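I'll show an entry:

:::
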Amino acid sequence: MIKLHTPIKHLFRFTGILFFAWFIVSCEDFFDPQQDLSITEDKLYDDWYEYRAVAMGMYGLQQQLVEQLLILGELRADLLTITPNADADMVEIYNFNVSKENKYASPTNFFKLIAACNNFLRILETNHPEVLDPEVPVTNYDRLYGEALCMRAWAYFNAVRIYGKVPYIHESLVTIEEIEEYINSPGEYIDDVYINFSKDGYYNDTIYNQPVTLEKKYFDLPLMIDVFTNQLEKEMKAVGVNHYINNNDDTWEVTIWNNWAASALLGQMYLTQGNLAKASAYFGNVIFNSTENRRYQLDNSFSYGSWGTIFTGIDNREHIYTIWFNKANFQQNRLQEFFEPFAPAKYMLKPTHRAINIWETVWRYQVLDENLSNPGLTEMSFAGVPSDFYRGFGSSYLYIKNGGILPSSDYENMLTLRAEGDDRNSRIIMEGADTIVIKYSIGQNQYDHDANYIIYRAASIHLYMAEIYTYYAWEQNGIIRTNTTVALGLVNDGSNYDISANREQRGVRGRVGLGNDADAVKINNIIYKHDPYTNEITGYTDYSGNFPAKQKYLEEQILDERARELAYEGERFYDLMRVAKRRNDPSFLANIVSSKYPAGKREQIYNYLLDENNWYIKYFE
């Protein structure tokens, strides 16, 4: 991250969060009708930077959600598991037996963020009613309003994905105490300290202490998506204040909600809903844009050995929206503590065997001697080189042995011996070794604990688009057409782009050397099966005349690619949910997730997850 340049910037990043902590604690008094409301608001909101400071405090509340987002999105899926050091709450989540006291399952931080957004939106609507008028030219108040709308929609979206349903938090509820009282009330809730602000913003039109009855409502996923996509599309005039003009630091743009992030959120909600046309339109805003040199296409930036630098800083060629942390400003998280095996970290979570295999059973430079007339006679002329070197070992995971990191030379020797069929000697090298997640430790020392957390980045959107093109169909001159060719281009080598910006396109696999020739993902009529460790051909599947089966095969390849590219970034469980729902096949998720459990527990988890209701934490039952 570029260093802070000005006192104003320190206000945004640091003072703003402390200021908001005071604001949240004080908001019950702030809305007390016995207070002199107009004087209080004049004092609090008489300066633009005070508005901005309060908004930055809301980003501080988003920081508090990072740990549970990662754990709930990854530990319930197939790529992450517990170690003997895991705390009791992690063990509950791993076992799909979550109590209401579980700190990672608590909705409190979501409610805090929603309450803060409700509060801030009401203040903007009252003091700057022009934010509600689409005919009034856009100002920074509109941009702040858009940030708060996105933040609230994102909070609801994630909460519903976790809990299955969440209570609708009425906009008059602006403290966590009010929200908890409302949620715990047996029936209707009377908000007897409600303040009805006039929309024209004049204090003398404000009605104090008007009781209002709030009917308790719940959002499930379809209703939540309908409500908030409609709200963002109709009420959001602009998103994201431009700080670059003040501090000359363009990375600020992607550490706040911005136009790109708003499109990513809308696309993600529509994809979850199954509306592929709307999802592709919003994702297309991001990756097929006509501004800033085709921003967010995948070129040589972060290619090969540079891929890991995506996680060492913030770069708006890849980052779309990232939750920023900084040790110097006392903003830290526990991700290193969860994953690292060295003191003061606790090594509570680690990669699964399945996760390691997803990286290590990829092969590059392979050459097939193909016999199309008799596929059973096809052989490997050259097996190739195993492992997704640039995204796997050293970037997403490492091996540890004898209290230290396994040398890369030992790792490469193990792969070579295994590829040659020398299982005995490869096992000798790895005896006593274990694995760790390294993605949040790149560029960090053991006491930093301030790795950034990426919400949206370019490669994820490209893979979402590939998933859409796998199934998206339209009618042309009476013929139903699909576009799996574009899906393959997005995944493999970046072909089928509009490249008028004169940037060399790589694709998701291509930028780490896996997208060309036999290395590429394909959906040919004949798909060969390979031994994962030697790459020898063990059989084949004939998809001739079976396009739906080809689509499912491609979808699974894209899902595996998301695992390699995006492991431990919080989306894996929801990726599996989305695909299982599209297929109307709960066993798809149940089979993949249960595969990480030991034999005695695998069947139990599989049967439990066959019921879609068990994919959610039943906090509001």
Summary: The two ends are 43 Å apart (CA to CA). Confidence is low (pLDDT under 50) at residues 1-44, 193-209. The longest strand covers residues 537-542.
